[in-house]
């Protein structure tokens, strides 16, 4: 069976996503609530050099594109990052799955749901944040139950409005920049800019997880690589413009404790300010919730197909072509996390650990692909010299390790959760492997 197809009970995933829809999905996964919540925190670490920190944080993602272009054009798949990581090490892939599956419903989804609720509270003061976040999660859970096409239609509409809102910030914001706000350029020194870069990693890494729905993309071997390149180029340009405006229109020490709504108030008035908050901040958060929930459901499906999760998670709804049980599990864990209400910084760090670890394994898989899996590499529409693969892989992995070390030092408790998830994933894989070997001997 082709890697882009999925064995499942009850029904099958449907190929309904074209290039435009996939670009919108990847943009929505990138431009999320983190842009509005974390940009100010990063500015507090590095000041006016915020946009330089963004370029540094993007470096490992841009370098990783070589690996992703090879793998997605050779072997598009459902839950693709996990499938690619298995090419390097099934045991570590299980560990990465465990980390990421925890990071999504315990980190990403609650983070973006709370971001949405806090932005709504600006428009409707006094609304309960956690209750509102749960309502938002429930809405997109229901949308995802109706299938990938419904989720994609919502994504296309919201990303279109999101673009308008972001350019409402950028276009009038550029002439409002005051040069005195851009000096000194590096008030936080080398550690400040490196710390800000590690924090901003999630802003561009999310788009790499648009490849997870490879089994539902039309002409995936060409569509996915094109969508990756186009979406990352678009998002990177928007981020740099937004960050230059944000630190250029107000003092970075003031912005450090605020969301992007603070610099927007400097030069925008109602109704444009309200539209930026709604169409920019709120839609940025909900587009990420929408597709992150989609990805989480597929992760449960893939793990169940590998016999590492209960078999009923392989069931796909016949009518809508969606893994309802996986979606429900991710939704349930997210709601429980929201009720517990851990610190936002912990949620963001857990997400970053998951992204960094999984992407690193994917890069290792691409590095070894030509020699270890030549039959798969021969199918790739995008091929590079071994020297190019080696240089980009070493550089990307080295930066990823530095970012993980910074996060581990700064957030020790979150790092311990990450380590625990890694150990749990490895143990689960080993136990299941022994069970399967025992069953084979009995047969």
List the helices and strands and how they pair.
Elements: H1 19-30, H2 33-46, H3 50-74, H4 80-88, H5 90-123, H6 129-145, H7 148-173, H8 189-205, H9 220-249, H10 252-255, H11 261-267, H12 272-305, H13 324-340, H14 344-372, H15 374-377, H16 386-410, H17 412-442
Give a written overview of the molecule:
This protein is mostly helical. It has one domain (19-442): Amino acid/polyamine transporter I. The protein contains 17 helices and no strands. Helix 3 packs parallel to helix 8 (189-205), helix 5 packs across helix 13 and helix 14 (344-372) packs across helix 17 (412-442). It is globular and about 75 Å long.
Radius of gyration: 21 Å
Can you tell me the CATH architecture? Up-down Bundle
Q: Residue-averaged pLDDT, rounded?
A: 86
How many β strands by DSSP? 0
CATH class: Mainly Alpha
**Class based on secondary structure composition and strand pairing:** mainly alpha
Uncertain segments are: 1-10
- Supply the number of helical segments: 17
Name the CATH homologous superfamily.
Amino acid/polyamine transporter I
Helix content: over 70%
Morphology: globular
Instruction: Please report the distance between the alpha carbons of the first and last residues.
Output: 24 Å
């Amino acid at each position: 069976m082709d890697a882009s197809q999925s064995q499942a009970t009850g029904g099958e995933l449907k190929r309904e996503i074209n290039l435009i829809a996939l670009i919108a999905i990847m943009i929505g996964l990138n431009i999320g609530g983190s842009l509005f919540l974390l940009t100010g925190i990063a500015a507090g670490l590095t000041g006016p050099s915020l946009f330089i920190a963004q370029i540094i944080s993007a470096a490992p993602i841009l370098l990783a594109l070589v690996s992703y272009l090879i793998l997605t054009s050779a072997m598009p798949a459902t839950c693709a990052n996990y499938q690619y990581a298995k090419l390097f090490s099934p045991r570590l892939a299980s560990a990465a799955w465990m980390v990421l599956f925890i990071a999504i419903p315990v980190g990403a989804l609650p983070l973006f749901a709370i971001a949405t609720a806090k932005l709504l509270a600006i428009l409707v003061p006094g609304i309960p944040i956690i209750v509102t976040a749960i309502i938002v999660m429930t809405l997109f859970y229901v949308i995802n139950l109706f299938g990938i096409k419904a989720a994609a239609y919502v994504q296309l509409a919201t990303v279109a409005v999101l673009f308008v809102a972001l350019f409402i910030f950028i276009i009038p914001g550029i002439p409002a920049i005051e040069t005195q706000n851009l000096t000194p350029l590096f008030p936080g020194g080398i550690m400040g800019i490196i710390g800000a870069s590690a924090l901003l990693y999630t802003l561009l890494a999310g788009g790499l997880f648009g490849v997870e729905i490879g089994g539902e993309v039309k002409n995936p071997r060409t569509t996915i690589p094109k969508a990756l390149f186009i979406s990352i180029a678009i998002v990177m340009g928007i981020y740099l413009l937004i960050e230059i405006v944000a630190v250029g229109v107000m003092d970075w020490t003031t912005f450090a404790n605020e969301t992007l709504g603070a610099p927007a108030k400097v030069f925008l008035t109602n109704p444009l300010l309200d539209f930026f908050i709604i169409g920019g901040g709120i839609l940025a958060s909900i587009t990420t919730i929408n597709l992150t929930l989609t990805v989480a459901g597929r992760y449960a499906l893939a793990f169940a197909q590998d016999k590492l999760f209960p078999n009923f998670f392989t069931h796909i709804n016949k009518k809508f072509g969606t893994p309802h049980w996986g979606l429900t599990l991710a939704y349930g864990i997210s709601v429980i996390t929201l009720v517990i209400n851990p610190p936002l910084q912990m949620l963001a760090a857990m997400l970053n650990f998951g992204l960094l670890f999984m992407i690193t394994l994917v890069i290792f898989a691409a590095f070894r692909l030509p020699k270890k899996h030549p039959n798969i590499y021969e199918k790739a529409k995008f091929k590079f010299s071994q020297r190019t693969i080696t240089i980009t892989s070493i550089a990307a992995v080295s930066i990823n390790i530095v970012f993980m070390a910074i996060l581990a030092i700064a957030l020790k408790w979150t790092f311990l959760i990450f380590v625990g998830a890694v150990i749990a994933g490895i143990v689960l894989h080993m136990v299941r492997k022994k069970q399967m070997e025992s069953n084979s001997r009995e047969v």
